[in-house]
Each structure stands twice: as structure tokens, then as C-alpha cells.
Amino acid sequence: MPPKKKSSVPAADTNSRNQTQTQSQATTPRRLTRSSSNLASAKSNPPNTPNTAASPTKTSADDMGSAVSKAKAIKQSRKSRKSNGTEAAAVESNGVTSKPDQTIPSEEPATPNGKGKRKTTTTPPEQKTTTAKKPKVSKSAEDNDGVDKDIVVVPKVVSKPAKAGKKSQPKNADEWFDVYASAEDPTQIDVPGIIRLLEDLSVKFESAAIYILCWKLGLPTMGSIPREQWNSGMRKHNVANNAQLLKTLGTWLQQTKPVSPPTDDFLSFFKYMFQFSKNVPEARTIAAENATAVLGFVLDPRTYDLKYDPETADPLKWEDHPYPHAVPFLEFLTEKQPVKVINKDQWESFLPFNRSVEYMLGNYDPNGAWPALYDQYVEWRKERDGLTIGPKDGPDTES
């Protein structure tokens, strides 16, 4: 057989094929750190290969590999730009803008050769600053034309409500009377109505205030306040409501307060209370039990105070009392019970007796013109306190 012919391909062609394979391998995409705008140029210019002989021509395989590399690079660049646009939209939707001079890293999807993710740089979000709203002005949403408008809020004028629990003042004494009038008899203020009146005035029933009021209104007896006396008395003293009544009562109490010697106001009030304490106006006496209770607050200067409270008031000693015989005399009526009723002479003799006779009974005259009840009182004091002064023979007990 004839010998095979040797390949006529020169060594230069062999080197050209090796260089083409090297270039094909070099065009394989790899991880880049350049910005997305330079990716196309980076892919089109493969890195330098080792110093070899340059090939005079490129094969069709080389052209195909270069075209594929460029296509991949362009596709990758588009993905990068799309990713950057998505991140920017997400940041914008959260109300944050980015600063141009700062960057933050972000990861891209894996490259076509599966060699992991490539990092790109995006600008960090900038926190949106807010300013305080001006008072009374609110920003409305976009109107139909898409333009924001400022809406000025006009404050609504609201009338000041009345204080809770504050009652309206009556227009006249007659309306004022109706507030406390009895439901069964609207022409009278009965005992429950009087108690409600004192509660509204914050005055205790045990004080002398209600009796001073009845005295000023000219009521003949206790039990109720007629409409006619109420209206005429309030007009006489220029009193139209509870506030004025409370102030006037304070003045009346100070003017009538028991002192020694007694004032004309107290003498008049003291005599009035005997008549007022009767069960009926025609009666000539009052029960001893009722007389003791009435004398107890009429003679006590502590009860002539709007703030008087019997539960907290300090006891009054005889040394401090304007009428020293008041304390032992009331004890005598309660313990000894010498009489069942008190008449007008016995009632009205008490004030002169206190002015004339000392507390220790040293100047007591058994022949004086005192009612027999006071002679009995002196005898009782002698036995209880060991006194040797007084009438030798005790008087008869009055009935």
C-alpha cells in the first residue's frame, strides 16, 4: 500500500485552533463586579490570553460562541435593570426615597452557568421626613381634578353646659314655695318639706335656724308653713332663693344669740318660742318634756350657728354659759320631774331669775316673788350640791 499522506495543515493552523478554543472558553460568563451599564462592553471584549500566535481568520464556531456570549450578557443586563426598577418601586411605595451618594448591596438571580448570585449595588432608602400640621388646617385627598387643596377647619361654637346638680333659681317666692310644698296640700310646707329645705341649706334640724325663720315669718305654731305667710314674709325681708335665705339666716342668728344681759331680739324670740311650742294656739301650757327640749336649744348659744352639729359640738359648762342656771335647771326638770306642764309665768321667769340669783344661790331670797317651781329647784340644788343656802321650808309642788 502506498504510504498515507501527511496532513498538509501547517503548524500555524494548529495554533489558530488552540487559540480559538481558548477564546471560546474565555467567553464563558463569570461573576462581575462592574455596574450594569458596562456589562455589554465587558462581555464583548474577552480577557487577554497567554501570548500565542494570532490566527489569521476566525471560524464560524468562533463567531457563534461570541454571539451567544453577547446575547447572554444583554439578557443579564436587562434582568439587572429590571431588578433595580422593581426595588426602586418597592422603596417608593413604602414612602422612602433613596440618597444618590450612598449604596447598599443587593443580590441578583443566579447566572446562567449556575455559579451563584451576583451582587449589584442599589442606593439605600431615605426616610421621608414629616412636618407638624398647622392647627385647624387639614390636607384633603386629591379632588376630582387631581389637585391637593387645603381645607380650613372652622371651630364649631358650642355653648357652655350648665353645671351638673345646680338647680335653677325660682323667679319669685311663690315658685320657690312650690319646690317644698306638700303633695297632699300644695298650700302648706309640711315637716318633710321643712327638712328638705334645711338639707338644701346644709343646716341641722337641731339648730335654732328653723325656729328663727318661723319667728321672722310670724307663724303661730309649729307643724307647717302656709303659703301666704311664706310669700309675705320673704317679700318683707327681700329674700327670693336659698342662697339669700342662708345669708339672711346667718345675720338673724347673730342678732338673736343669747347674751347676758339679753338683747331685745332674744327677749322677743324667747317669748315667741313659748307660744310656738304649744300644740294648739289656744293652749295655756306646754308639756314639760317639750319645754325642756325647746329651752335646751333656745338658751344654748352654740345652736345659733349655721355650722352647728350636736354630734361634734363641745359640751358647754355652766361657767361659760350666759345663763348659768340653764344647765342645772334643765337637769332638775328631767330628773326630778316636779311638774307635768310649764305655764307662761314659769317660762318667762327664767331669764329674770338668772339675772338676779347667783349660781351658788348665795343671794337667793326665799320670800321673793318667784314661781314655786324655782323654789323647788333651789331645794333640789341644796340636796344635790350640799348647799346650806335657800328656803327653810320647801314650796308645794305645782301641777
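The record above closes out task 2.4. Task 2.5 opens with a second protein, given below.
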Amino acid sequence: MERVSKETSAVLNLISALILIVMTLMCFFLWTKGIGTQGMFNLYANMNRYMPIGATIVLLLNIYRLKVGDIIWIALAIASIFFYHQFDTLREAGFLQNITLALIIFIVLDFKLVEFTKEIRVLFAGLMLLILLITAYRIFTEIPTTEGISIWDKSNKLQEIWINTNTIGSSVMCSSFIASTLFQSLEWTWAKYLKYPIYLIALACAWVVQSQAAFLAVAFFVFFDLWPNFLKEKMKWTYGIGYSIFLIGIFPLSLILANSNEIDLFTGREDIWKHFYQTLFKVKEQFWVGMPPFTFHRGTQILGNHNSYNATIGAFGLIGLTFMSLFILYNVWLLILKTDTQKTQWSFLIAFFGILLQSTMEDTLMAPYWIPITFCLLGLAWQKNKVTIIVDTNEYSTDFFESGEEINSMTRSQRHQ
């Protein structure tokens, strides 16, 4: 795409970054404040409008940065809207649901294309840390206590504090992932050390609110993120294989677990999944393109899928799950195959895989109010730090938008002079 002037690009970039930060803050505000008031509920109910608008504006502001691969994915995203519109009656869906897959692609591209300078990353990471601290404060000051039972005891069963505890756990997980990965990417000594208290706060909060999925995801991230950067880089092929096996196998694995009477790995969610699959397979076309909204009744509770991959199949069928998985794998494998991927970028991929693991028990990949704070990690994995290359006493700086081929060309020409 045609370039714009450096000054104009800097202004557009700053506006774009601020819009993306505000979008993520809006998502976290829902869970940090709660949706108990009419005003907060209205915000919650309209997020499926606000998020696509914001994502589209940012994409338009950065249209000059698009590459061929990005344009192809945008075209596929738009085509998916028209494709699923053909099955609105079968799925009992409308435009706002049909654009969900496009929203995922737009969000990832937004966080990929916008240059998050170190100054912007400090601001973004600081805000995410503030969200985490506010959430932690509310957890430990508002958690209901039972005489004789510690809040750390697993028998202290909770379902809600100011909002559902699984939602609180998901918020803690996402804010800690974004904060720790952004601080690490700065490659400043003081910033690197901040990840350790973030780890501890996230683990403590997820444990206390009894959010099993969030706790396991944070524990997974902490374990692998503690590895030295050189080991993370050596393991890059493992990331690609792990992502591929997981995304290919998650549907058949969920189907097997749902129909097993012996295995209970997901705290009773298998009953929900079994009922979901029974409903899904009643009509052949539903399996391919989606079905009406699914709910599960357990006593007085009305529950959703509690599995993002089932939620994706329910809304968009196996075609939609395959489409989303291919987009994720495209980004992951492209980062792995690129020779100039920096060591700091691997933490974002580890964190996003933690999100995928947690999503086996929650609907965090499909809801418009979660998509910006989950899929942003996949987009941020493309962010790089500036590198200074010295050739014959002359310095050349490269940034996120300058390719290795351009650097090699400059180097060869300098040597011939």
C-alpha cells in the first residue's frame, strides 16, 4: 500500500493505539466495575456494536500499512459475513453475530499493524497492571467469608462476589498476561522484574476466586514464561506443533469427553457439552454452519456453552471453527518461520496459548467484550523493538514496518561503495 508522510503516520499511529487501549479498558471496566447497574448493563449489551466500530476505524486509519496477506484475510473476513447471512434463519442470527469472525481478524490485524512504541507499551502495560491491582483489591476486601473456612481453602466454594467468579478469574488472567508480556517486551531491567509480582498476584487471585480454568492457564503461562529467552526461541517449533495439535484435536477431544461416563476433567462441564452435541447433531446443516443460541438448564441456573470451541461451532459450525483456527495458525506459523522474529515475541504466543487452554472451559474467544483482550495477544506478538545495525561506521535503524530484505539491500549497497 502507498506510504504516508512520517508526521502523518505518527499521528495516525498514536490515534490508533489510543483507540485500541480504550477498547481494552472498556472490556475490563465491565468486569472490574461489574454490570449490576443499568448504565453498566447498557454498556455490556452494546459492546457487540462498539467493538466492531472501533476495530474498523483503526483498520481504516492504518490501511496504508496493509500487506498482501493482510488484505486477503480482510477479504475473507468480509466474505464470511455474507456467507453466514445466507443461514440466518437456520441459526436464528443477525448481522451483529455474523460479524464476530471478522471482528477477530480485524482485532488481530489492528494490534499487528499499529506500532506500539516503548512509550505506548509502558502506558498500556501500566493501565493493565492498574486493572489487575484494582481487581485484586476488590477480591480480597469484598470476598464473602465463612467462619472457620479460610478464603484460601478449596472448600470455600464461591460463585459470585461482585460478578461471577469465573469472569473475575478470566479478567485477572487477561490483565496479567497483557501487563507481563508488555513489560517484558520493553527489555528494560526494572520492567523485566515486574513480571514476578504480576505472576504472584494473578495466581493468588485466580486461586482465591476458585476459577480453575484461569488458574491453570496462568500457571501454564508462568511455568513456560520463566524460561530464559534463548530457550523460548529454541522451542519455537514446539509452539507451532502444539498450536496445530491443539486446534485440530480440540473438537474431537471435546466430543469424546462429552460422551464419556468415566472422565470428569472439566468440573461437570461435560454434561453441558453432551447436551450441546445432542442438540447440534439433530439437524445436519447445523454441524456445518451453526445453530440457534444454546443454553443449558441446571436447576435454577441457565448456562452457556462453557467452551469457546463449542460456542464457535454453535454460532458458525465446523466451517467457522476451521476458519478461526486457520487464521490463528497462519499467524503463529508465520512468526515461527520468519528469521527476524525477536526473542521477546515468544512470550505473547505462550500467553495466547494459555488463553486457548482456558477457553476449553469458558466462552472467552467468541464474545465481543472478550475478543479485544484475548486476541490482542496474538496481534501484539508481531510487535518488535527497534534494532540498530552498524555497517562500516554507518548506522541503520529498522522498525516494525521495515523488512529484513530492505536492510540486506542497504548493507550490500554500502559495501559496494
